[in-house]
């Protein structure tokens, strides 16, 4: 799941990624690329992924990855998503009430005591919960990957916030990924989603064909959850 191509910042073409997935004997491949509001290639991308899927036994899907803009849960997504199978909502910035903030600036503000870290965590949780509520079938991408950029970690997320977010995901039919590249979220966070019945996807978040199907962190997390 979650493999980038030359459509955005991946090194491999869609065809090269498919070949790597076949070599790794994967059952499924989800091709995901970064978009913004002004992205115009989404229909061509979805069509190319569909065509690739016709030539293989593998279950090939398309996804678009967009950042969460603000606490209303709005996404930086083009109007025409071209029929992509999934939308991935990502915390690439800090989604605040008035828009996406630069993580480095928020980290500085926290360090200076100008910003309350608990309020920032609450904004991220609320933004993500509203994103899943606004759009069915969303994938929550590398949840909490932004926290280390703020000098925080997942222990800053209250259990009740996790459970509220997991409940919102369950109600809207969202999935959550465990992300090999960002090594998040933690087993503790995923347990809340698993308990709420939210499907967990194993994503390499590959940016080059060599890492497709190579799981380490993800498998450790799944083993911990299974135990
Ligand atoms: Zn991302
Ligand atoms: Zn990604």
Describe it.
37% of the residues lie in helices and 17% in strands. Strand 7 (175-179), helix 6 (187-195) and strand 8 form a beta-alpha-beta unit. It is an alpha/beta fold. It contains seven helices and eight strands; from the N terminus they run αβαββββααβαβαβα. The protein has a six-stranded parallel beta sheet with strand order 1-2-3-6-7-8. The site of one zinc ion has 5 residues, from loops.
Q: Main attributes?
A:
globular; binds zinc ion; 6-stranded parallel β-sheet; 227 residues; alpha/beta; 17% strand
Question: Helices, strands, pairings?
Answer:
Layout: H1 14-23, E1 28-34, H2 42-54, E2 59-67, E3 86-90, E4 94-96, E5 99-101, H3 103-111, H4 117-134, E6 139-141, H5 159-172, E7 175-179, H6 187-195, E8 200-203, H7 217-226
Parallel strand pairs: 1-2, 2-3, 3-6, 6-7, 7-8
Antiparallel strand pairs: 4-5
Helix pairs in contact: 4-5, 5-6
Residues 2, 4, 32, 65, 205 line the site of one zinc ion.
Low-confidence stretches: none
The tally of strands reads 8
Bound molecules: zinc ion
Distance between the termini: 23 Å
Order of helical and strand elements: HEHEEEEHHEHEHEH
- Which geometry do the CA atoms define? globular
